[in-house]
Every structure is written in structure tokens, then in C-alpha cells.
Records
---
Amino acid sequence: MGSNREVSGEFTHRAAAVVVATGGIGGNEELVRELWPAGLGTMPDSFVHGVPASVDGAGMLAAERAGAHWIHQQRMWHYTEGIRNWDPIWRGHGIRILPGPSSLWVDARGNRLPAPAYPGFDTTSTLRHLRTTGHDHSWFVLTRKIIEKEFALSGSEQNPDLTGKDIRQVLSRIKPGAPGPVQAFLDHGEDFLQAEGVPTLVAQMNALAGEDLIDAAALERTIRARDAELANPFSKDTQITALHGARKYLGDRLIRTASPHRLLDPKAGPLIAVRLHVLLRKTLGGLETDLGGRVQRADGGGALPGLYAAGEASGFGGGGVHGHNALEGTFLGGCLFTGRQAAVGVLADLR
Ligand SMILES: Cc1cc2nc3c(=O)[nH]c(=O)nc-3n(C[C@H](O)[C@H](O)[C@H](O)COP(=O)(O)OP(=O)(O)OC[C@H]3O[C@@H](n4cnc5c(N)ncnc54)[C@H](O)[C@@H]3O)c2cc1C
């Protein structure tokens, strides 16, 4: 066992029932690196942390030392739209943008990402593609009009209207203007750049990257080609087609998708570039359990007496129940379900 697995904590079997509910491994950078999935290339050197350092896998590691079977260790889910928090709560704190569909997504050299790597489409395939580009970051290029309508930020502290259950504040999302937390990133976030034209924006992008990676004329051609497709009713640009599709649904039209417009339309400006980092977040594998949350032995000998697991530590139930391409936003449900099932298992065994 490598040193990065030596997180403190051992299980003794004095207690009748121990439920491991310590979350995943996303805050343990060394362990994530050791287990990084082969299909995703190499782990980036530069990234942001989407969970606190306490999510270090201590419970799973201790269970493994006690003989538990930790399956699908390579299954993990990391986001590609991470921004460095200007007001961090934990070390290297990154926030995930929950993006609407309109931003132009380009790699570190300014090349547009291929379909289906559009904002909010397919996280894992986008990550797979980005790991082939030779750089750790990518960019959203958008307009003020898009950021006002389409940027939402993940995390309870970024959504005071929802966490405060304030219906009036929630409804204010329909109003024009950027939501307060998004405006704060525009004002203070190191990854946010604004300019009136492409050459100035690209000069800022290259300065932030510390290298002249993007050619301003080439990026302007890419933007103009995208903008030209807006006038084509038979456009084969699948992102433009998706914009029109999203606008047909009232919910998206009201708060998630800006009316389609040219990125170079001065009325929609200024132009904005947002540098995106990989954001370490979720663990999809975990301690193998049965439907009563009983942790299974690595040697195939059945359940380990008195040891149960729930939540992300159990791969949301049994070890990777969501599969490789877990559906966005379904994690909490699995945590609640496996917590319930573990309680049922403990009660049945204590009777
Ligand atoms: C910002 C953010 C937004 C998210 N948004 C969504 C979403 O919209 N939808 C969705 O489905 N999922 C979302 N998730 C994922 C979801 O929150 C997690 O998968 C879920 O919280 C995991 O629950 P858990 O109880 O297994 O672990 P956790 O919530 O990580 O809780 C583990 C607890 O164990 C404690 N702990 C760890 N080690 C030890 C130790 N050695 N001793 C004692 N205590 C320990 C930790 O302090 C923590 O309190 C989000 C996650 C984050 C970080």
C-alpha cells in the first residue's frame, strides 16, 4: 500500500455496528492521482478542489485494511467547468459553473471543442477530450448577455435564494442582470476577463495563461463562423441547433438559455472569457455492499460482521451503482437511499 493511502483511522470490532459514511476520495489529491482512470489520459497537474480536504477516503481505506472489498476504484466523476473561488472556503476551492448551452467552448489553444463537448452536455467525454489537448485548462467565450442568463454556480453558498427558500429571490432570476454571486466572480474572480473586442480579449487570455497559446485572428475566425450559423435556418452546427431546441422549452427560455445572438454583437457585450479548470469532485466506486448496506469481504467470504456503508463511501450503494457515466444530479438520492438501506440492515442484524 502506498503512502498516499496511509490516512489515519482503523476499525476495531468492539462496536456492534459501524456505518462508514465518510464520503468519497475527491479531496485526497494523491489518491485520486493513483486511481485516475486510464481512459481519461493523465490527471491534470493544475486543477481546483470541488470538495474539502476532509473528503480524503479515510473511512474506505480503513475498511479496506479491515478486509473490505473496495470495487470500481477507478470510477470517478470530475467536472470540466471549474473556476477558482475568489472567496475560498477550503484549500484550492473551486466552484463548478452550471452552464447554459450558448458559450463557445475552446481549448487552451483556442480550438473549438468537438460535438458533443458543449456546455452542460457530457462531462466525462469533454474531460476525455480535454486530456488529449496537452493543456490543463480550457475557455468559455461568451457575452454579457449570456452570462447574465446562463451562468449558475454549484454550491449552497452560491445559491442563497434556494438555500434560504426565498421565493421572491428565486423569481428574480428571471430579471435582467447577473445574479449576485455571478457578478461577484466577474468583479473578483481571477479566471474572468472582459473586453470590447477579440484582440484585447485574447491578449488578456494569453497573459493569464502565461503563454501566447491563442492566435487572436484564428479565434476571431472561429467566432465569426459560429455567428454566421445563426443566420442559417438549416445550420448543421449542432450547438446552434441545441440552442433553438432549448428555447422551445419555457423553463429554459425563461432562466437558462439566452436568446440566440452573435457573440460579436456589440449590443450583447462586452465579450467575456472564463478560464476553466478541471474540478475534482465525485467518487463513483466504493465499498461493496449488499442491499442491507453490509460491507462485503475482499476475499469473497460474504459480509464483514458489524461493518456497513452508505453514501459516496459505498459508491452510492454496492460500489458504483450509477455506472461509469453517472447521471448528473442523482448522487444525493443514492446517498439517502443507501443510508436508509444501511439502517434497515443494522436493525435487522441487531434483532
Ligand atoms: C458543491 C457541491 C455540490 C453538489 N451538488 C450536487 C447536486 O446538485 N446533486 C447531487 O446529487 N449531488 C451533488 N453533490 C454531491 C453530493 O453532495 C455528495 O455526493 C454527497 O454529499 C455525498 O454524501 P455522503 O454523506 O456520502 O458524504 P459527505 O457529504 O462527503 O459526508 C461525509 C461526512 O463524513 C465526515 N468525515 C470524513 N472523514 C471522516 C473521519 N475520518 N471521521 C469522521 N468524520 C469524517 C465529513 O466531515 C463529512 O461530514 C455536490 C457536491 C458538492 C461538494
---
Amino acid sequence: MFSTDRRAFLKAAALGAVASGFQIPELALAADSRPVKPSPGYYSFAIGEFQITMLCDGIFFLPTDSFATNIQPEEKKPYFDAHYLAPDIVRLQANPLVIDTGQKRILVDTGLTPGTEWAAHAGRLTKSLAAAGIEPGSVDTVVLTHCHPDHIGGLVTDPTGQFPKTDLVLSETELDLWNSPDFASKLPDWAAQSAPAAQKVFAALGGRVHPIKGGADIATGVTTIDTPGHTQGHMSLLVGSGSDQLLITGDAIANIHFSFDHPQWQIKWDHDQEKGAKTRGALLDRAANDRLLVAGYHYPFPGVGHVVKEGMGYRWLPADWVLDG
Ligand SMILES: [Zn+2]
């Protein structure tokens, strides 16, 4: 998806890791760095009368150490090797999406802040919206599943200019968490670093910020689900039109490998790692039992598929691409 040589790729990964609050002196990234042509960066499909457009914001990197934090290396290493997960760095995609209900255009999450070091290969939201033919001025509502910088990042540079008409919806718990003068005592250290940027977004949007209770509707057919753990106020969304449904997980189920095979494997990026694991298990169970179509934020693009039970865990089944014309 990106033209770069291995040296630039590793450097970007290292800078990204440092910029997002990690110190990784040496990186051995088992990556195929052969240049490929950029893709258009969007994929649209129907949920009943609604149109869903998955948008590619790009990829970024997090240290492998930060995943499966409660698992011993003897168990973790063979699993990561078997799933082609590099020993030092896990690559994550970021997939914001637009729900077009016919009455309202709702953007769910906004990717990373373009031009920042850890977004060397991300921050493409505006380009992907343009490729999909979606005018930023036509977005009525931005919903944030939570306020980590890979979700609020697309609003940081120019909160009122980027989406001139939009309201911002997030859970009241999440707003309180990040907008509190006392944020440093409520957030893990690594997350607290990005709270000032989030506060600038809230201040710039002012009365256009609408905190809601998890479980409230955002529009007819678009309902939030309280899924705390990743952050205290994390929300997932359930979209329904006609007999079709789509579950938008946000970061409650972060990875298509270990989050599915071993939902109880904990993740540093869950503010409450135990609660995160519990919520993940419950949401996977619901998706499998109710045969829901699922959109995942950090899954290989476009990140749409189903969940089936397998063994003691679950398996991700990517949906087929359906191409018209
Ligand atoms: Zn995320």
C-alpha cells in the first residue's frame, strides 16, 4: 500500500513508537517492504437502506510486548510466530467508517493526526473520504468510540475546519475522563500524554460536543453499546436497517488473531485490562450467537466479517468483497 524502502520503514516505525510514548531501541520488523501501488482506500456496502463506507486511514505500529501482557513468553512466542506477528512490532490498520442513513451522515472515529511521526503511514482519512466521494462538509455527526489518539487524531489539526457542520458525539464517561482537569489521575501515563490535544478538540467544538449515555441512540437504526475496559467510556455501535445488522466494535476486540483465539489475553492499551478481556469475550459471544456482521477498527482492511466460535475461542471470517459495475 505504501512505497517505502526497508530503512525508511524501520525508521518510521521507531519514530512512531517513540512519538506515541514508547522507547524501543532496536526493531526487527519482519516486513515485506517491496513497493506496491496505493489503493483507493475505501469500500462501501449496504446494511438495509443504509450505506456503510469503510475508510482506510493507514497503518501504524505498537510493540509486541504490549499485547498478551498476562501470558508467559513460552506460550506467547510460538503463538505470535505461528501467526506471522513480528517479535518486536505489531502492525495495526485504522479503519474509520461512514454510516449514511439517507437522513444523516455519521463518521465513526477519525484515524491518526496527519503529519505526526507515528502517523508516517496513516492520517489518510481526508484522502480516503475524497476517494469515496464524501465531502467532509456533508458529515453531520462524528462519533468517537473512545478518545485514544488513533481515533480522535483526525480531528486534532483543525477541529472546526475539517468537518465544518459536524456535531461530536461520545459517551459522557469518556468526555469526563479526557476533559477533566484531573485527567492525569484517571488515565494511564501513556494515554494522559494525548489528553491536552483531546481537550483542544472539545474546546474548539464547544456546544457541538454532545455527551451521551452508553446505550443511547445516535440516529434511527444507530445505537450505542456500553463496552468499557479499553477505556472507561468506550462505546461500540449496532447499526440496523431492515433485516441487516452491523456491529461496530471499536477497540473492544482489537486484533483478528489473539483477541479472537484468546479473548482473555490482556492488552496494555486497555485502561482496565481485566474488564477489557471480559467485555471482549461478551461481545465476541454476542457477535457469534447473533450472527452479526462485524466491522473492526484495527483489522486488515476493510475489516468487515463474521465471528464464529472455535475451540475455546473464536475465529474471524472476513466477508467477501462485493463489487458492483
Ligand atoms: Zn485504537
